[in-house]
Design a protein that fits this description.
Elements (H helix, E strand, L loop, with lengths): L2 E7 L3 H12 L4 E4 L15 E2 L10 H17 L4 E2 L3 E5 L5 H13 L5 E3 L1 H7 L9 E5 L2 E3 L1 H14 L3 E3 L2 E9 L2 E9 L5 E11 L5 H7 L6 E11 L7 E4 L8 E5 L2 E5 L3 E2 L12 H14 L8 E12 L14 E5 H5 L4 E6 L5 H15 L25 H11 L12 E3 L4 E2 H11 L4 H8 L12 H11 L6 H16 L5 H14 L3
Parallel strand pairs: 1-2, 1-12, 2-9, 5-14, 12-20
Antiparallel strand pairs: 3-8, 4-8, 5-7, 6-7, 10-11, 11-12, 13-16, 13-17, 13-18, 14-15, 15-16, 19-20, 21-22
Helix pairs in contact: 1-5, 1-9, 11-13, 13-14
């Protein structure tokens, strides 16, 4: 049985970042994910690269962390980041006094925040509410979370890490008070496997509480559901925020050809975390509040709704949850609980994932007496290295941003199957061959197929057929098509009315079994 230096549990952005950092420092690394990469909160957020401005008033430390990591990610992950910049707007029902406090706190945290005339804000972002009475420009940006996770996973592999998806951790290999490895079930075969390591890192997000419980330790987590809406067109080009205390639906983020309004925040039971549903009431709230940021949203087609679960960490002494933290929480269970060989990393934000990985890997290297410097803030991710794609056309450029220099392994004359996201048949073949894609949802996370304006309506038949052929079983095409339609349908149900309902019915008729 092979023994690793580290086993990482969780294939979200934090786990992917830890795998990359560990591998780059020469540690033999294994990452286990029960589903697919970016399957949890990392793939269910609004895609904001925080400047830290949102946290400047109430969480100065978090704000400073965000602005530092914002600058780093603009460099190392430029292929995943769109430098939109951001506006915080004050509406008549808000307070200009809060705006003044906000600007001062931003500057104190090292964030370049500049108050501008409302007319200038309207010139910079024509979609913004013309009733605004104040505006502040901040260095927010848009980031593709799927692309970011995939790039970290790819770089981890390039540095020797092993990545196993569809492996669900069911227990630990324990000797006395020391964790020696994990027991994981291969969900594809049903086989129960054992993997040994000097250290195990729990990076499973909200599910990390259950992982810790298997080791006999407790992490006080409170699942917080956040619902979001995706609109069929890119209404805004800058990130638009509401300049007030954090509340529901106070941010509109542009991304690729769409835009996303978010988010709500409601505590939910752990048993609901695997099956988040957006309610019509949440959709109504998001649409009403979002239209105050950009009135054009009220007449823009809504593509779908979705929800993620934030891993909020609460102080054990406060079961009511009033002392909930959204900061980074790194737990050395040897010091905290007397359980050796186990470390948990949780909390934080998408923007601070790299810092979280650095902190975690620093701790592991200290325990292993390895004096190896972290270089993840300096080395660009695949697809962000400043080289040019080897092929011509939008298909090659899109594939380059998604897969970096591996784009050169794809046929340059391949047919484009998904026109919204410019995914070619060659990219699908590459995803099957190199990225372990087994179904349509895996493919969506690796290539963004079906995530554009038509939501797969006009390409899913062609894509399902191509995927089944690449997997060597052409008979699975219909199964893949229905699997994808069911997954997309879940997010569409809460937003079906008017023209959206008409289009949904049209798509249903197109793809219904004859």
């Amino acid at each position: 049985m092979k023994e690793y230096d580290v086993i990482i549990i969780g294939g979200g952005v934090t786990g992917a970042g830890v795998a990359r950092d560990c591998a780059m420092r020469g540690l033999s690394t294994l990452l286990l994910e029960r589903g697919d990469i970016a399957d949890g909160a990392s793939g269910r957020n609004h895609g904001l690269l925080h400047s830290g401005a949102r946290y400047a008033v109430n969480d100065p430390e978090g704000a400073r962390e965000c602005i530092v990591e914002n600058r780093i990610l603009r460099h190392i992950a430029s292929g995943c980041v769109e430098q939109t910049e951001g506006l915080f707007i004050t509406l008549p029902e808000d307070s200009l006094e809060y705006q003044a406090q906000f600007v001062g706190k931003c500057r104190a945290a090292g964030i370049d925040a500049k108050a501008i005339d409302p007319k200038e804000a309207l010139r910079m972002e024509p979609s913004v509410n013309p009733s605004l009475i104040g505006a502040v420009v901040v260095p927010d940006a848009s980031v593709d979370p799927f692309r970011l996770v995939s790039a970290n996973i790819l770089d981890a592999r390039l540095h020797g890490a092993e990545i196993l998806t569809r492996h669900s951790v069911e227990g630990f290999i324990k000797e006395g008070v020391t964790i020696m490895g994990v027991k994981a079930r291969d969900l594809s075969t049903g086989e129960l496997k054992q993997f040994r390591a000097h250290y195990t890192i729990n990076a499973a997000g909200i599910w990390g509480a259950g992982i810790a419980a298997m080791a006999g330790v407790r992490i006080g987590m409170l699942p917080a559901k956040g619902s979001l809406l995706v609109f069929g067109h890119r209404v805004n080009n800058m990130v638009i925020n509401r300049c007030r205390k954090p509340s529901n639906a106070d941010i509109l983020v542009p991304g690729d050809v769409v835009c996303v309004i978010g988010t709500t925040s409601d505590k939910v039971p752990f048993e609901e975390c695997d099956n988040m549903k957006v309610t019509p009431e949440e959709v109504k709230l998001l649409l009403e509040e979002g239209s105050k940021l950009a009135p054009g949203l009220a007449s823009t087609r809504i593509l779908r709704a979705y929800a993620g679960v934030r891993p909020l960490v609460a102080d054990d002494s406060d079961p009511s949850g009033r002392s909930v933290s959204r900061g980074i929480v790194l737990l050395d269970h040897a010091k905290r609980d007397g359980i050796y060989g186990l470390v948990s990393i949780t909390g934080g934000k998408l923007t601070t994932y790299r810092l979280m990985a650095e902190m975690t890997t620093d701790l592991i290297c200290e325990k292993m007496s390895k004096n190896v410097r972290c270089t993840t803030a300096l080395e660009p991710l695949p697809g962000s290295k400043g080289v040019r794609p080897s092929g011509q056309g939008l298909g090659s450029l899109a594939a380059f941003h998604r897969h970096g220099e591996d784009e050169s392994k794809m046929d340059k004359d391949s047919e484009v199957l998904c026109e919204c996201e410019n995914v070619t048949r060659a990219e699908i073949a590459y995803a099957v061959r190199e990225l372990g894609v087994k179904d349509m949802n895996d493919l969506r996370r690796r290539t963004r197929i079906g995530m554009g304006t038509c939501q797969g309506g006009f390409c899913m038949k062609k894509v399902a057929a191509a995927l089944s052929e690449e997997l060597g079983d052409g008979s699975k095409a219909e199964e893949f098509e229905m699997q994808y339609a069911r997954e997309r349908w879940k997010g569409m149900r809460p937003v079906m009315w008017g023209e959206t309902l008409r289009e949904a019915e049209y798509m249903r008729k197109m793809h219904a079994k004859k």
